[in-house]
Structures are given as C-alpha cells and as structure tokens.
Design goal:
alpha/beta; 4-stranded antiparallel β-sheet; PYNP_C; 1,4-alpha-oligoglucan phosphorylase activity; Aldehyde Oxidoreductase, domain 3; 3 domains; 6-stranded mixed barrel; 19% strand; 18 strands; 18 helices; Pyrimidine Nucleoside Phosphorylase, Chain A, domain 2; EC 2.4.2.4; transferase; Nuc_phospho_transferase
Length: 501
C-alpha cells in the first residue's frame, strides 16, 4: 500500500512539453526528499487507475509552485486525466527493458526485430527519457544501422501502430527525402493520380528542419488534421486525400523519434528509410515512388550517396512487400518561386490552374512523379497521361473537390511585411545555396507563421545588375522580417554571383 508521504495533489502546469510527460515538484517537497528525487529523475505517477512515467523538473524558488503540490505538463495531464486536486502517488519506476538494448546498440551490437520492438514499445509507453531516446538515435546514426537492422526497425515501427487497408487494386504513393526548398509536388501529384481514377490516400508530415512540410502547405488551403474515419470518407468520395499523418497513429514511434532528431539535426539513412517505409506500409500503400534530389547543398549531396540510400530503400521495400521506384532528381537549386507554407501553396495553385506565371520546374517535376505512379499502376505513357489530366483542368477540379471534402478550400494569404534582398554586384547567378535560403525563410517565421518565407525573383543562369532584387523576404511581424533580413545581408553565398569572362 502506498504511504501518504508518497502522495501529492496534482495541478495542471499549463506548460506544453510536446509529447514528453513532465512533472514539476518543489525542491522542498517531502516526496522528493523521501524518494531522493533529483532533476531529470524518471518518476512514476499513478492516479485513478492510470499511470505515467514522467521526467522531473525541480522548482527552486518561492514562485508559482510550492512544496505542497505537483504540477503536470500538458502531456502528463492528458495521460493521467486527473480531476483538479486528485492525489498522485509517486514512486521510482522499474528500469525499462529497452535500456539495456540501447546500451548494447551504443556499444556496437546488432539488434534484431524483437529487440527494436521492445525499444519502440517502451518509447511509446513513455518509459524512456529524452536522454535514452537521444542515445538510441545517436547510436543508429550515420552508418551504424545495417540493412538487416533497417528492415527490422521498419517492421517494428510499422507493427507498433495501426495499418489501413483500401481493398483490391493498386494504392500508389510518393515521397521526397527532402532537402530541396519549394519542392512541393505532392498536392499536384495527388490531384493528377486521383483524377486518373486511382486511390491515393496521401499522409504527409509537417516540417522537421525545413521551412515547410507538405502538411504545412496543404493546411494553408484545407484542413489536414483528419482522423482515420474522416480520411476514409474523403478517399472514398474523391479517390485521394492529403492529410497530416500525425493525427492517424499509423507509425506513432516515428513521431517520437522525429521529436528527438529535430534538435540533434543529423541524418541517418537507416532511420530515414525506416521512417518513410513504415509510414507508407501502415497507410496501406503497395507501390511507392521515392524522389531523391541530389545536389551540393541538398540533403543528399552526391550520386554515390544517392545510390547507397537507394539500395537500402529497395532492400527494405522488398522485405516488407512494397513495389518501389526511385527517381533521382536535380537538387542543385530550389524548386518553384516560393519557400514557406503559403508561398508554396501559391505555386501549387498556379500549376494546377495553368496560369502563365506557373513555375515550370515544379510543374515538370510533378508530371514526372505522377507519370511514374501511373505507370506503376498499369497505365502506359504515364507522363503524357499526367500532362493531359493537368492541362485539361481535371487535376485542378479533383484537387478542389479533395479540399472541399477535407473541410473546405481557402486561398493562401500574403504576408503583411516584405523586403527585397538585392544583388551586391553585377554578374551571372551561378548557384543558390539551398540550406542558406531555407534558413532565411525559417528566420522569417516559416513554417510556424504560414505566410512567412522567401519569394525567389532570380534563378541560376540569370544576368543581374547591382541593386536588382534577388529574392523577397515575407514575414508576419516586423521583428522577424528584420531578423531574417540581417541574416541574409550577412551571408555572401546565398546567391553566388560571378562576373562573366
């Protein structure tokens, strides 16, 4: 029986710690003293037949929380669902089984599927701290996951969530590995493929390290946080959808690992493959096109790196029963004109509406990817068929119908604050740094501020004169505009300009 000295009334801290449960306790709290709790200690909290394991943050001053109560973060409160003033029972949790497996991986041991499944299970149950998860992510980074381990991790991640089924017939999907600002082909591809009469239930992610993810851009135009039942209704009515995968619970472990990978800001082929393919399989797709942009400032920087990633993707897809096609594309410069959710949505709509100023590179990329999916699903001359569906207006009509089914279409809005960044000298633009231009867009507020970002006004190969605008920064506040402008002004290699010989 739990002793009274191990109990405290629970209050809501009203602090968002994302999906990580956190408990706040005062350093003079009798429970902390009795149990020897210190900052970052893992604490088991039980209340009303439910329990959660949370990380402890210690309050040292005489401010908002005294020693007579414990405060729960939003995630911990949602897990326990206490009534205000309910008593929580505090104790040390048992050491999770995954801890020894993570330690083994850190020291270079190979893990099999059951061991990865244990790590995923403990992560989903919040038995692992962010430090544990960071150690796991780091131990799997670089080339530390073999192809066999990649397959095992992919299966473990897929099986930890739900999987959708769509009946007989092909279920195509596409994915880009990222690293190329403005490459927002997905809404166009989905519209074309659905207009061709195929089923394409597209789940997309929000931005991790980029100025916009597909879900961020789509949300500018229509709701994306649909549950499974709502998603199914959209697909049954229109043949396709573009929804945020985080609301569906299809590969929930991926969301946890992404949360850890974001601040670490490094890439791992094995984890990338497991992330992509576990979600595709869980979404019910059976044939997938993967776009791999290659360029000196893209995520994948060389043909050799693309070949290695492609080999791992193919082996893993084959092992889990997916038909996979790889499309290696030019990643030397941004795609389209806009970088940021609303700006990329404007580009998408221009392509679908066939306006004279529609970005040609975005249009052609989308046609190639849609053509590949059509051919994988039994069509012949896929690119030509995709072009007909786009040029006839059928893709635009289907896209608008999908938006209406998801909750209603909205035109993208423009940012209230803008400033141009001008060429410092005469010359020819020879390159645009993908990473630096994306950084400018993020400093302007993207993707959190949907209207923020960068509008490109010149491209490589263009002859420019000193003072000519190269790009325009869009922001929703004067402060963010100034911050992004100052960064852009200090960077001399965002646009490489050379004097022609």
């Amino acid at each position: 029986m739990t002793r009274e000295r191990h109990c405290l009334p629970l209050v809501r801290a009203e602090i968002d710690t994302y999906s990580q449960p956190v408990v706040f306790m005062h350093q003079d709290c009798h429970v902390c003293r009795a149990e020897g709790f210190r900052a970052l200690t893992r604490v088991r909290i039980a209340c009303g037949g439910r329990s959660v394991i949370a990380s402890l943050n210690v309050v040292t001053g005489a401010g908002w929380l005294g020693p007579e109560a414990a405060a729960l973060s939003d995630a911990a409160w949602a897990a326990l669902r206490p009534r205000l003033g309910d008593m929580g029972q505090f104790s040390h949790p048992e050491l999770p089984e995954a801890a020894s497996l993570i330690r083994a991986k850190v020291y270079g041991e190979r893990l099999h599927q059951a061991q990865f499944a244990t790590i995923i299970k403990d992560a989903l149950a919040h038995r692992l701290s962010d430090l544990d998860l960071a150690a796991f992510v780091t131990a799997c980074a670089g080339e530390h996951l073999s192809t066999c381990e990649t397959i095992a991790l992919t299966r473990a991640m897929q099986e930890a969530g739900r999987s959708l089924e769509w009946g007989e017939g092909p279920v195509p999907d596409k994915h880009c590995v990222g690293g190329l600002p403005g490459n927002r082909t997905t809404p166009i591809v989905v519209a074309i493929v659905a207009a061709a009469g195929l089923v394409i239930p597209k789940t997309s992610s929000r931005a991790i390290t980029s100025p916009s993810g597909t879900a961020d851009t789509m949300e500018v135009m229509a709701p994306v946080a649909l549950d499974t039942a709502a998603m199914r209704k959209v697909v049954e009515a229109q043949g396709g959808c573009i929804v945020w995968g985080g609301a569906l619970g299809l590969s929930p472990a991926d969301d946890i690992l992404i949360r850890i990978e974001r601040p670490l800001d490094f890439d791992s082929d094995g984890q990338l493959v497991a992330s992509i393919l576990s979600k595709k399989a869980a979404a019910g797709s059976d044939r997938v096109v993967i776009d791999i942009p290659v360029g000196p400032t893209a995520k994948v920087r060389s043909e050799n790196a693309a070949e290695a990633l492609s080999a791992r993707l193919r082996a893993t897809a084959r092992a889990i029963g997916l038909d996979l096609a790889i499309h290696v594309s030019d990643g030397s410069q941004p795609v389209g004109c806009g970088i940021g959710p609303a700006l990329e949505a404007i580009d998408v709509l221009k392509v679908l509406r066939r306006t004279p100023d529609a970005p040609g590179d975005l249009r052609e990329r989308a046609l190639v990817l849609a053509g590949l999916l059509l051919e994988m699903s039994g069509e012949t001359a896929g690119v030509e068929r995709a072009r007909v569906l786009l040029d006839s207006g059928a893709a635009e009509h289907r896209f608008m119908a999908i938006c209406a089914a998801q909750g209603g279409f909205a035109e993208p809005a423009e940012a209230p604050y803008r400033i141009p960044v001008e060429a410092p000298r005469d010359g020819v633009i020879t390159a645009i740094d993908n990473r630096l231009i994306a950084r400018v867009a993020k400093l302007a507020g993207a993707p959190q501020q949907a209207r923020a970002g960068v509008l490109l006004m010149a491209r490589p190969g263009t002859l420019v004169q000193r003072g000519q605008p190269l790009f325009e920064i869009w922001a929703e506040t004067p402060g963010e505009l100034a911050y992004a402008r100052d960064f852009a002004s200090a960077q001399k290699e965002i646009f490489r300009i050379e004097v022609p010989k």
